[in-house]
Design goal:
The protein is of the alpha/beta class and about 400 residues long. The protein is built from 14 helices and 13 strands. The chain has a seven-stranded mixed beta sheet with strand order 2-8-7-6-5-3-4, sandwiched between helices. Strands 9-10-13-12 form a four-stranded antiparallel beta sheet, covered by helices on one side. The longest helix is centred in the last third of the chain and has 22 residues. It is globular. About 45% of the residues are buried. The chain binds pyridoxal-5'-phosphate and (2S)-2-amino-4-(2-amino-3-hydroxyphenyl)-4-oxobutanoic acid (3DJ). The site of (2S)-2-amino-4-(2-amino-3-hydroxyphenyl)-4-oxobutanoic acid has 4 residues, from loops. Its EC number is 3.7.1.3. This is Kynureninase.
């Protein structure tokens, strides 16, 4: 008979685990890359496929309000990231949304040419900014500094500060409010990528005075592989921006079929083409899990899980070197360690039921999702890690040679 782990006593989120489909024998520490399937999503999908698509056909756009799904889902995400009503839409990918917000922000600061980011940002954000700078006649500069130098690099030639709040590799978390304030003080605008924040801990976009934000639907929001992303525009900017991607779904009257583009009111002008109804349905259903949850409760449990993991690994696995900040205040909901043979180590962990991931050259990364993880899971994961290290199981050819894409 199994005993409750002492740190799991009085866990207010314990019952949430049953809301997810976790494969038997798997301890899933990768919800920061792809979230787990919420148990009720397949039934909702089946209903929308068979009843709505199957029976309503084209009438579904009106009968089931498919056309408004981006705003509906956007508002639900907005609640989790501290956005105002009607300030978020769920659409496209994070990468495409980066393009939209950087181009919109640059147009709001016409005389300025510099985009500031850091080398901890996820590469797609940097690539999109580089591509945009090229498109704008090579007139703009993407300036990249170290995360710890960002604050000092905010100078009065900046047009835009573009950062990811939580570093995908190290879990280090920027101070969104303080850096946004600093950017505003020099007349720049602030864009935040919340890929590793939304659904992981409370975010306060409105209270931080952020100008723009984007983020993923498939990580902590559990919307499924390739789920629609989201985009936030502060209400004060919404009617001043002229989108670079001027698609018909961002037109003020898409079904008037005018020959000239006129932007929709408010956040809707960030929409581009036809919404992916099935993907939005999965994301919409997945968000039900958050309906009765206080993000502050998620945060407290996340800190506890991460701290317990760090303490156990450092105590029992001295070969592992902590990469993430030790201070929970400046860390998201993931913990990374360095190990020279990290790739083989992660392969051995996965083969033994502990799923995390590896980021080159030597970082193993573990995401903690309080909705479906317990301290008992963390203890078991460290048991497996310790065994793999003490037996040098990672050194087997089978783990060293295996190729994977993620
Ligand atoms: C911070 C960040 N931004 C963007 C992305 C990627 O966005 P997309 O879903 O467009 O591939 C990721 C992860 O893939 C990410 O970690
Ligand atoms: N988006 C991904 C994908 O399509 C395949 C594999 C992994 C991903 C990821 O989400 C990577 C992730 N953003 C990261 O933090 O590394």
């Amino acid at each position: 008979m199994s005993h409750l782990h002492p740190l799991d006593e009085n866990d207010p989120l314990a019952a949430k685990r049953d809301a997810f489909c976790l494969p038997n024998g798997v301890i899933y520490l990768d919800g920061n890359s792809l979230g787990v399937l919420p148990a009720h999503v397949p039934e909702r999908m089946q209903h929308v496929v068979e009843k709505q698509w199957g029976e309503s056909l084209i009438r579904g756009w009106n009968e089931h309000n498919w056309i408004d799904l981006p705003q509906k889902v956007g508002n639900r995400i907005g609640r989790l990231v501290g956005a105002e009503q009607e300030a978020v839409v769920a659409c496209d990918s994070t990468t495409i949304n980066v393009f939209k917000v950087v181009s919109a922000a640059l147009a709001l600061r016409p005389g300025r040419k510099v985009i500031l980011s850091d080398n901890g940002n996820f590469p797609t954000d940097l690539y999109m900014a580089q591509g945009l700078a090229d498109l704008l006649a090579k007139d703009h500069e993407l300036r990249i500094v170290s995360p710890e130098d960002v604050a000092d690099a905010i100078t009065d030639d900046l047009a835009v500060l573009m950062l990811t709040e939580v570093d995908y590799k190290t879990g280090r978390r920027h101070d969104m409010k303080a850096l946004t304030e600093k950017a505003h003080a020099v007349g720049a605008l602030a864009i935040w990528d919340l890929a590793h924040s939304a659904g992981a801990f409370p975010v306060d976009l409105s209270g931080s005075n952020a100008d723009f934000a984007i983020g993923c639907g498939y990580k902590y929001l559990n919307g499924g592989p390739g789920a629609p992303a989201f985009v936030y525009v502060a209400p004060r900017h919404q009617n001043d921006i002229r989108p670079a991607l001027t698609g018909w779904m961002g037109h003020v009257a898409p079904f008037a079929f005018d020959l000239d583009y006129r932007p929709a009111e408010g956040i809707n002008r960030m929409r581009v083409g036809t919404p992916p109804v099935l993907s939005l349905t999965a994301l919409d259903a997945a968000l039900d899990v958050f309906e009765d949850v206080d993000m502050e409760v998620i945060r407290q449990k996340s800190i506890s899980l991460c701290e317990y993991f760090i303490a156990q690994v450092e105590d029992r696995c001295p070969e592992m070197e902590l990469v993430s900040p030790r201070d929970a205040e400046v860390r998201g909901s993931q913990v990374s360690f360095r190990f020279a043979e990290g790739y083989a180590l992660m392969q051995a962990l996965i083969a033994n039921g502990v799923i995390g991931d590896f980021r080159a050259p030597d970082t193993v990364r573990f995401g903690f999702t309080p909705l479906y993880l317990s301290h008992a899971d963390v203890a078991r994961a460290v048991d497996v890690l310790e065994k793999i290290l003490t037996t040098r199981m990672w050194d087997m050819d089978e783990f060293r040679m295996r190729r994977k894409v993620t």
